[in-house]
Amino acid sequence: MIFVWYNHIGTLRMEVVKIVYGYARVSTVNQKEDRQIDELIKYGISQKDIYIDKQSGKDFKRPQYMRLYKRLKKDDLLVIKSIDRLGRNYDEILHEWRKITKTKCSDVVVIDMPLLDTTRNKDLLGTFIADLVLQVLSFVSENERVNILQRQSEGIAAAKKRGVRFGRPKKVLSSQYIENYRLWKDKKISAQEGAERSDMSLRAFYRYGNRIEF
Asked: Is 138 a catalytic residue?
């Protein structure tokens, strides 16, 4: 935002004043973002400068976030309640964080994590600390994702050993279908007629026939 005025001696002066934006996100339309909004308002952000997405945080292709990003200017400030409200994929968060702080030259504050506050330490050490915290979060997130996948794999393997079957249950073939398939194999009816008699598509008529042993 640019303010223009004349000083006491009549000289035209301009000053760029930073804008503080808030961003809130919930994963689905049924979830409430009220607590995030309350925290952002307590921080002193105007309701009109708060952008809200009701969408997964797997990437940054979110309409309100993209609008907000376009508006960010040098020295503007983006405030979020927690880092996972910015996104879920920490590799992408790292990339986006650097776009905001390096490309846009804007600041970021994460309310729930005071170390992630680029307004406090503008020196090399402050930048290093923020990057280090994000790298640690990225590692923890990726490690947890790998552990979840491993636990799922182990659970499936254990369930299979117990005889649990996964996937779609096999269709039970009726005696009517089996008879119609036999007639088709004996060339007494066409495949299309067999499918119609069995009340199924021609494709299904052929596919299920592979399970019949004569």
From this structure: no
